[in-house]
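Changelog entry: the GIY-YIG domain-containing protein record was regenerated in this release. Current contents:
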Amino acid sequence: MLACRHEITVYILRCSDGSYYTGLTKQEIEARVWEHNAGTYDGYTAKRLPVELVFTETYDRIIDAIARERQIKGWSRRKKEALIAWITRPCRNCRNEDRSGLSERGGRPSSFEAPAGAPQDEGGERARPASTGGGAAGR
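Regenerated structure tokens:
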């Protein structure tokens, strides 16, 4: 018998007031963003509509997604914006127009090293692009 695998998406939304909401979800990200914009749940984004999806990372293991969500939630606004900008800016050495493909499917090769200029976490380690999800309000 095969185990059922679910992808978990960590995501960042930009709210109408300019704040960020970081969350994670097991459902399709488009459906989750729709729920936020429809005001389906009473929470942080309900009074800050509409919201716009600005970042996603996908994980195979819930524990990894939760850890990443918590990490991002602990970041300053400036650091979140650096992550969003880094993941979406054009890459001269890539075949794709941007780095968004790096954030698909939980990540990157195990040897992935983020280049200079990528946002760093408090320990001086560079943040690595990952995939998307939903959860509690960001800072």
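The chain has one domain: 8-106.
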